[in-house]
Amino acid sequence: MRLTINGEHREVTARTVLGLLEELGLNPAATVVERNAQIVPAPAFRKTALLDGDVLELVGIVGGG
Q: Of 35, 45, 48, 55, which is least surrounded by CB within 10 A?
């Protein structure tokens, strides 16, 4: 499946947002996901299907002070 992730075209095998984060090695608890200009709530990562052509923005949350 072909997605645009943070402005970069990528081929992935994942079929859900959670699967994508796992495929990319990202921590789901520390990642904000926007899919087609809509924020995906973390509890919905497992059931939110990805479709060919989706545009995603992935932002890692960093703690500090």
A: 55
> What are the φ and ψ backbone dihedral angles of 63, each rounded to 5 degrees?
-85, 165
pLDDT tens per residue across span 6-60 = 999 999 999 999 999 999 999 999 999 999 999 999 999 999 999 999 999 999 9
Spatial separation of the C-alpha atoms in residues 63 and 65, rounded to whole Å:
7
On the CB side of 4, CA atoms within 13 Å amount to: 7
User: How many whole angstroms separate alpha carbon 9 and alpha carbon 3?
Assistant: 6
Q: Can you list the alpha helix ranges (DSSP code H) found in 1-65?
A: 17-24
Domains and CATH numbers, the chain: 2-60 (3.10.20.30)
pTM for the model = 0.93
